[in-house]
Design a protein that fits this description.
By secondary structure, this protein is an all-alpha fold. The protein is built from 15 helices and no strands. Helix 10 runs antiparallel to helix 14. The radius of gyration is 19 Å and the shape is globular. The relative contact order is 0.14.
Length: about 270
């Protein structure tokens, strides 16, 4: 389908996706409950830093960081890998392939369409953070900070979504790729800044993580939200993030196209 055709179809796909997110709002609530780990970590790290700061982080800094982490998690999540695995196993992917629009656009629009519902969750958390620690620690202080934060959130979501597609596409070559997605999630929890600020890691390990995609899924948007970087540093990190977006995009599309060529529907 041409780019013009995709653009014409996108509004309809987004409306359908948003209607589904409203219809299945109970699932959204369960998802929110499953992403409360940053709040648990906040309490733990506040206890650790009660008597003295940990690195550059005191109690107030940990409150700001983990509330931002919770909010960013809502905005950068994707679940395409599990959906692709399920549709390949059930054979329903064949129905998607008969449509004029690539399933990849459908998966993306379904993820994006739920964004308003996730904003409803994220915004109150940001307001609570502002009330608890002050706007200077909770949100960007300059117009460029807000702009770069939004770019980082988009990039974080793109890496997450494309990684989901790439791993999901592997189910076209094997029985299931869900275990591989679970391994990816473990690495994400350890390396992204989700469990603790990346800055607290040893310098050598931090240098390695700086070249992996996980920090750019979560840590970078959180750092920009809490004004952790000056403009030159932020731009350099964003360049690395979008290099990963490009690389993940090439990998995801290549695996998808090769997998679809050998796809045969099976199951009920």
């Amino acid at each position: 389908m041409s780019a013009r055709g995709v653009l014409r179809a996108l509004p309809t796909m987004l409306r359908v996706g948003f209607a589904e997110s409203i219809a299945y709002r109970a699932e959204m609530f369960v998802w929110v409950l499953s992403t409360t780990m940053p709040l648990v970590n906040m309490v733990l790290w506040m206890a650790v830093s009660k008597d003295a700061p940990v690195g550059n982080y005191g109690q107030v800094d940990f409150v700001s960081y983990f509330l931002a982490t919770f909010a960013v998690r809502q905005l950068t999540s994707a679940w395409a890998a599990w959906l692709i695995n399920w549709e390949v196993k059930q054979g329903t992917l064949a129905m998607r392939l008969l449509r004029p629009v690539s399933p990849l656009w459908a998966y993306a629009s379904e993820n994006v369409a739920g964004f308003p519902m996730r904003v409803v969750v994220a915004v109150p958390v940001v307001l609570v953070s502002v009330a608890l620690v002050g706007a200077d620690k909770a949100v960007p202080q300059h117009a460029w900070g807000w702009a770069l934060f939004l770019v980082a959130v988009l990039g974080g979501w793109a890496i997450t979504f494309l990684a989901n597609v790439a791993i999901g596409a592997l189910s076209l070559f094997m029985d299931s790729s869900q275990k591989m997605m679970e391994v990816w999630m473990v690495l994400f929890f350890v390396c992204s800044g989700y469990m603790y600020p990346v800055e607290l890691l040893p310098e050598g390990l931090r240098a390695v993580i700086d070249w992996l995609p996980f920090r750019y899924q979560m840590g970078l948007p959180v750092e920009l939200m809490t004004s952790a970087h000056d403009l030159p540093t932020a731009l350099g990190l964003l360049a690395r993030q979008w290099a990963w977006v490009l690389g993940m995009g090439v990998l995801a599309v290549t695996l998808w196209k090769q997998g679809v060529k050998r796809f045969a529907a099976f199951g009920g």
